[in-house]
Design brief:
Order of helices and strands: HHHHHEHEEEHEE
Helix content: 40-55%
Number of strands: 6
Radius of gyration: 21 Å
Oligomer: single chain
Shape: globular
Strand order of the largest sheet: 1-3-2
Largest sheet: 3 strands, antiparallel
């Protein structure tokens, strides 16, 4: 299903208006409401920018090329890579903290759960990596679409959200009442 530009603009406008349910009424009678609308729209714009950055990172994690991403954004491969290709500085490895790198949308859950059996649990993430910390118990990790029923169900069952979302994903973990397996995954 494709939404035309007019319907898309209407949906976005309604979403911004929902941030302050009084804004529509106040726009008719309060000059201050117009500045309040500017603030709301700026906040929405900032958040959409974060979502776009996260969506590009998600596409990279799903192994899409900068050429394909640039095409989807209506820009060159080089422009897309310059704008969105920043990599976080690697975290130095220690006995209690590691950074798992090279993770993609296709392998990250298997990797996290393999490390989880050895007592490592995710404490943060970004494009193609998860920061993990050691503990004495096993951990289980799950990924769900932001705002989905699955995410809400997991949280209602005691799963702990890891950091904030990484659009379109939210990551969750829970510890198991099992001692961590010795060593590290191979």
């Amino acid at each position: 299903m494709t939404i035309d530009d007019e319907e898309f603009a209407d949906l976005i406008g309604r979403a911004v208006a929902r941030l302050d349910p009084t804004i529509e009424r106040r726009l008719e009678i309060e000059p201050q409401a117009h500045l309040d609308l500017v603030v709301l729209t700026k906040r929405a714009n900032d958040e959409v920018g974060k979502l776009l950055t996260a969506a590009v990172s998600s596409a990279r994690a799903a192994e899409w090329s900068w050429e394909a991403i640039g095409s989807a954004l209506g820009m060159s491969r080089q422009a897309a890579q310059q704008r969105f290709g920043r990599r976080p500085a690697p975290t130095p490895g220690t006995e209690e903290h590691r950074q798992l790198v090279g993770l993609t949308a296709f392998n990250e859950m298997d990797q996290l759960n393999a490390w989880g059996r050895h007592g490592w649990h995710s404490v943060g993430f970004g494009p193609l990596f998860h920061d993990v910390e050691r503990s004495p118990v096993q951990w289980e990790h799950r990924r769900a679409v932001v705002g989905s029923r699955k995410a809400r169900d997991l949280e209602s069952k005691g799963w702990e959200r890891i950091g904030s979302m990484w659009f379109p994903w939210t990551y969750l973990k829970r510890h198991l009442d099992l001692p961590a397996e010795p060593g590290e995954p191979t």
